Amino acid sequence: MSSISRQPTTLDFASPTQFKFGITQLPKVEFFVTQCNLPGISLGEAFMPTPLKQIPMMGDELTFDNLTIGFQVAESYENYIELHNWLLAIGFPKSRKQFSDFRAVTSNTPSPTRGAVASGTDVGHTSERTPANAMFSDATLTLLTNKNNPLIEVRFQDLYPLSLSALDFTQEETDITYLKATTEFAYKYYEIVTL
């Protein structure tokens, strides 16, 4: 293979502003997303002991970093409350009814009572939505070209929130700075699909 044939055919660079984020469970949040990361991934390693130097070997377990998004808080606070309620349902600090109410009424993820069937045979996937996996959601990070055409989809499986940032209020601002929040998610895995 010649070195000429190995040269790139396009010389455009990726822009950090060309993305769109969508999450099934949070329709009121996705419109206001202003930042998002493509989480890192790492492969563990093992070491083969020798009398001289330990020899590194390929590991067999992947670790995915958490997904973090930032969003503008709507004046009605409904997008912040949407995430807050999901966290409360998972942790149910007052009663177990918080979990069951969210799953039955608020969850946008199909549950057995709605007659939905999951469409995967992956490890950890069941043939029907159970009460436990009704608390998860799938999400898609779409990376766009410089002309805003979809180029790549990063598909996150079985995502759930880990944290939601505080909102800081102050009377000392000289100009209006609208409230922003960040949230962190864990998930089973993600895959990158070229469109």
Q: What is the fold's blueprint, element by element?
A:
Layout: E1 19-23, H1 27-30, E2 33-36, E3 41-48, E4 55-64, E5 67-72, H2 78-91, H3 97-106, E6 137-144, E7 150-164, E8 180-186, E9 189-194
Antiparallel strand pairs: 1-6, 2-5, 3-4, 5-8, 6-7, 7-8, 7-9
Helix pairs in contact: 2-3
Describe the protein in words.
The chain has 195 residues and is an alpha+beta fold. The protein has helices at residues 27-30, 78-91, 97-106, and strands at residues 19-23, 33-36, 41-48, 55-64, 67-72, 137-144, 150-164, 180-186, 189-194. The strands form 2 sheets. Strands 1, 2, 5, 6, 7, 8 and 9 form a 7-stranded antiparallel β-sheet that branches. A two-stranded antiparallel ribbon has the order 3-4. Helix 2 crosses helix 3 (97-106). The radius of gyration is 21 Å and the shape is extended.
Brief summary:
Helix content is 14%, strand content 35%. It is of the alpha+beta class and 195 residues long.
Count of β-strands: 9
Biggest sheet statistics: 7 strands, antiparallel
SSE topology string: EHEEEEHHEEEE
Q: Helical segment tally?
A: 3
Mean pLDDT: 85
Shape: extended
User: Are there runs of 5+ residues with pLDDT below 50, and where?
Assistant: 111-121, 123-129
Please report the distance between the alpha carbons of the first and last residues. Answer: 27 Å
Cα-atom radius of gyration: 21 Å
Q: In which range does the helix fraction lie? A: 10-25%
The proportion of residues in beta strands is 35-45%
User: What class, by secondary structure content?
Assistant: alpha+beta
